[in-house]
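Q: Start with the shorter request: fold the first protein.
A: Done. Sequence, then structure:
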Amino acid sequence: MKKAPIEASLLLVDDDPSIIQVLSRILSDYTVVRFATSGADALRLSREERPDLILLDAQMGDMSGLQVCESLKTDASLADIPVIFVSSLQESELEVAVLEMGAVDFIRKPFNAAQVTARVNMQLKLKRLADDLRQLSRVDGLTGLPDERAFDETLRRELLRAAEAKQSLSLVLLDVDFFRSFEALYGRKAADACLVQLGDALRRTLARPGDYAARLDGDRFALVLPDTPAEAGTALANRVLHAIEALDIAHQGSSVSRHITCSAGLGSFDGGADAAPDAAAVGQALLAAAGSALSQARRAGHAQVGVAAPPAE
């Protein structure tokens, strides 16, 4: 009976295609096995789609494995990917050097198939445990939505993906109208219950698999909407505001309604540019644009969506 494939994405990096072939056969039980024959390609593929684990040759022509590993470990978005070095060299100094750099293991050529599989499985198991712990630490304890740190990582990743696919992306910031008055009138417990209901409404309204909601702080939430130009993003943001109004949470302290409403601001990114973006800088600009649009919505009377002007060409 054929074994079920193991859910994991591996990246094999070696400038010798015959080594790639050997490792591919040994690791054929994994669902995704990609390969790179140069350090530059390894870094590019890692940024395009993060692998769960990298097997990296220590000696290559364009960049050494040590240089590739150093680049991975100094990139915050890639630093936690486990790296197993492979080498035909027997010097213990090399093994010590790569482990000190942050590699998780070292396998010598020629390969023992059972040993390679066992070591890869062990590192994948450790990574899953680390991912589970990280996920627990990046979830808002009140609403169960991702927190601000998780949001920052997701926004950066989705901006890079949008640029690669030449797609648009919309970012929506929203917060509760007159929330301080609500808390003063009804108390902290009611305010927390209100935020929990808002989080649930966001989950229900964002039906597409790629859409993402997070709680940033206090009563502020963020939505990341991949492959969504400004017009479609505005329509979705309005649906979110209507869903929140439909909760019918009483708010006698609001000057615009007798129940809870929210204001929202939208900024959009056009992924059609030829140059790869600086995701951190673009993300900050997008947050600033959405924040400005949110302020615009408040000035215009609350309970509506403000839309930032598109960036100048």
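Q: Next, the second protein, separately.
A: Sequence, then structure:
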Amino acid sequence: MSIHGEMDRVIGEIAARTRDPFVERHIGRPKTSAFFVKMLYLLLKSFSLPSERIRLHCVATTLLQMGLDLHERVSVGPERAEQGMRSRQLFVLAGDYFSSLFYRLLAERGEIRTISRLSEAVCEVNEAKMELYALSDGRQVSPPTYLGLIRRIRGNLPSALSDLFHDGKRSDNPWRELAPDLTVLDWLADADAEYPGAAPAFASGELRLELIRSLLASVRREAAAVAHPEVRRELLRMIGERFDSYLTEPLAREG
């Protein structure tokens, strides 16, 4: 099977595992980024893992990320209406459900080291979220500080996976910087992805566009350092397909 066929198979399995009529009826179809899934696939393939192990880790890690994302959608304001309280409870339960699928899938295959490392990464993600909530509580967060926290929130899971499978010095692992940078780029390009404090920090669409362009240059250099030739080619192609349109947009862009 081609690399694209394998990635499509992984995306299809994730869609099947997250299809639940009750959840969809009450909170909508849970979303995930196809770019995130493909990045995970290429990261794991670069370590020459067997295809079934790549698939397992892609599916499990994405389900875990989806669980974390669903918890972000839980409203924190006071709720008096029964519908609002019910919706909040369902977001929490759905997030817990997807996270539990992550544990079950990996435990069934004996991937205890992966469970341990990703569980540590979740703790680090939650620490960054708490910092972000504290900083954005009535104050304006500077873009560099904000992006640093988003990098930890969005990039910790793939970075942890790369540490798990990389042999050698951590400083020689290109994915340690590349994976978090790619997740930040994907977040910047997604107008619907918001965390507390995002509006003040990125009130200017022009600023967001400048950040994408600056980070894109760094990401290309980091991607060129990936040793696996097939992965490197596909990764650079995927980066271009996802982000090159931002290189031609006018800086006056709003949104």
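Q: Describe the second briefly.
A: The chain has a mean pLDDT of 85. The radius of gyration is 18 Å.
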